[in-house]
Design a protein that fits this description.
alpha+beta; 4 strands; globular; four-stranded antiparallel beta sheet
Length: 78
């Protein structure tokens, strides 16, 4: 995963969980791109992105997302 790009109060990320968190927090999704099998999402943000990332890492949402991934792996194993 590449680091997130920050420009003019916009952040572009390929992190699906962080993107879902930003949407959940009410940030406006202004663009999404898909090239081959890779998607990126661009949001308009009005605060320090570093602080948003810290909040995300410490949130209950990231715990939920990780458990969802674990369950998905469990049901896809055959």
């Amino acid at each position: 995963m590449k680091p997130d790009k920050i420009k003019n109060n916009h952040i572009t990320t390929d992190d699906l969980a962080f993107s879902a968190y930003l949407k959940m927090k009410g940030y406006l999704l202004i663009k999404s791109d898909q090239k081959k099998s890779k998607s990126t999402f661009t949001f308009e943000v009005d605060e320090d992105v570093s602080q948003l990332k810290v909040e995300f890492i410490n949130s209950e949402f990231v715990k939920f997302y990780n458990e969802m991934r674990n369950l998905k792996k469990m049901i896809s194993v055959k």
